[in-house]
Amino acid sequence: MSVSGTNTSFGFEQPRLVAKKILAKPQNEGDGAVVRRSIGRPELKSLDPFLMLDEFEVSPPAGFPDHPHRGIYIIIPLIDFFLHFHQSHDFMLCLIGFETVTYMLQGAFTHQDFMGHKGTIRTGDVQWMTAGRGIIHSEMPAGEGAQRGLQLWINLSAKDKMIEPRYQELVSEDIPKAEKDGVEVKIIAGESMGVYSPVYTQTPTMYLDFTLKPNAQHHQSIPESWNAFVYIIEGEGVFGLQKSAPIKAHHVLVLGPGEGLSVWNKSSNPLRFILAGGQPLNEPVVQHGPFVMNTQAEIDKTIEDYYYSKNGFEMARH
What we know:
- With 318 residues, this protein is mainly β.
- The chain has two helices and 27 strands.
- Strands 3, 4, 5, 6, 7, 8, 9, 10, 11, 12 and 13 form an eleven-stranded mixed β-sheet that branches. Strands 2-23-20-25-18-15-14 form a seven-stranded antiparallel β-sheet, with no helix packed on it.
- The radius of gyration is 19 Å and the shape is globular.
């Protein structure tokens, strides 16, 4: 058994229970891409501050062409938007107003942007990109066979929408890890078992990758004011209450209020899942593809800036 952030060996007096369970079914997106979208679909349009979560599997020649962003944190772009976008654009897309987090589970992706930043993230690596006032970048498979990973979009508050873009990249070996009683955790953001991530999150966020061996359990504290979810990567687990039915891979679990998450692996195989939580912004969201702002007027201004290559898009290519 493993306990993180709580003094009781039995979990929590007020555990977070599963409030909603959604199976992310695979969808074919263009040539060679399969996406399982769990957040950002009709059943779960968003979970403040989270805008989108995709589990993706991409084989060449598919990829994420150049695309613009403004006002977000990102983890991997809207795959269907990107795949259609690249038909008439030279593999670039713009993001604005949020952050993205790209976490590679298998294979590698090469990314580059209109400022000349270029690199490759491989299995276990993370790219935490703050789009802020706007960035145009591309993401393409960097090897043969299937490239698999997760991409999360995290909204930015109105006061942070127009900050300068930046990257934080961690190779697998540099991601802090902790292990106890059959539970291993990679701390991409936040804290677990007293170990902290060096990643700075503009929107207060936790992002933890857990693997539980058979018969292991864990109790992870989550700030009570935060929204949180689980995404099961492989195996099956019992979440919230020990008497609950096990839930299988590719489900997203929206957690209700409480002190933290309790999880048990009662199966004979390893259980791997992502636990993410974030401080709600409680602000209006107006989204136009990869542009995420607070009002329609701001969206209109963003489109104008991008079209006329101004206010941060001076180096944009159309």
